[in-house]
Amino acid sequence: MTASTHSTFSTWITDAWAAALEPLRTAPWGELRDFWLAKIFDDRFLVAWFLPLVPLLLLVPARHLRAGLLAASCAFIGYVFGAAYLVFWLLAGVALFQFSEHYARLCRRPGARPWGPPLLAIGVVVGVYVGTLLVRWAFLPVGLNAWLQENLPYLFPLGSRGLWWEPSFRPFEAVRERLGFIPLLTAVFFDAHTIGTAYLLVRMLHYFSELRRDSIPPHRRTLLNFLTYISYGPALIQGPLERYDVFQDELDTCHQRRKLARVPSALARMGLGVVKSIFAQLYLRPAMYYNMGLGGNPQKHFHYFDYPESISTLWLYLGLFMPIFWIYIEMSGYVDISAGIARLLGYRQVENFNKPWLATSLRDFWRRWHISLSMILRDYIYIPLGGNRRHQTLNNVVTFAVCGAWHPPVLAAASWGVVMGLMLAVNQRWAEWMKRVDAAPRGPVAAIRRAVLRVPLLPQVLGWVVTQHAFVWSLLMFNHGPLPAIRVPWELARRLLVD
Fold it and tell me: For the segment 131-141, what is each residue's pLDDT rounded down to a tens digit?
């Protein structure tokens, strides 16, 4: 290497390092409200608001732990999401508990039709969930809403009280501009996947399924146990989705696992979650907004999906991965904080992610990504439909279509679910075919497979490349429908083959 080349390389390294440190150097670390509360501890990271309650919970005796957890969770829900939402949550919880006990009796009644009680339970639980999606379209009288906001601000979530980001609802922008404030029901029920109602739906899928199987003994089905289970603050927002019996077992024994030696690891786990939020805010958000055109002019929102020809090739390709990586960083960071809080309490929270970016097949991926949700969908939808025994492809499609429809926007996400179910079915068929090839190693296909297997790590690398690209490509339609899922790869292929 010549002196000139060495100097150029050193300059490049210095400039790259300076650019990497620039966001950290210029971040407004001293701004509590506008930086930490509005940007770092927003959205999923609202779970951090539960942390001040942990020292109080550590003083609660074991026999009163559930009552203490429920009280702390109610304080968390009421302060962060508003007193109006707390009232709704408790009323809905009591109503669901009373109905669940009635449902358990229906399932045991002689002569009950096999699908009668389950269909009733599905109707009630889904009805509650859909109601929370629709109620934000209802508006109180303008005068009453203004009076409540002025005189009873704690009915509203933090965003309406100026301590947290105000949710941006495009369908309600005109109403907000005309009234000068967000309507109460719109503010309270702003997002089912943040306020916990979406995850309540999945918890009830598990709970009612276990009641059907008669696997939860009556002495564990108390109102206090039930409300503590659905209201547990650190997992309320976006999981993990604990099983009812596991949750109760953990609470029964968590005092035995509280040790001072666990505190450093708990704090480190929470610190990792905060670091992820900072990384997403300082690095991923600017990269997506300015390099991919996902921000700026509101008339050209999602520029990346609508006008991929205007994005550079590098960012067009990185755009396949960056949005989902951002989601992963935020979701896993939220789980880190939640798990750290649980560890302080002596509660062993289920892990929700296990290095999904190392997966070498779609089946492997879904054992690593949002694990608690994947296992519930497998146990209570996929297997009851027939699992691997019959109609395997249809079962995959139905399961992932339900998973997709659980996310907004429903139609685009459901279309993603159908495609993901088909891709997973192809993955399963491929694995079965490879087993047959290995069992009868003759012919050209077997020869090619043996050659590939002889190259160290080549099968794993090929599987990893196909898996990751298949997953991120499918997500293009998750929020925007099938057309962007075609438009962006087509533009990449055109540049590769033509330009």
Answer: 999 998 888 88
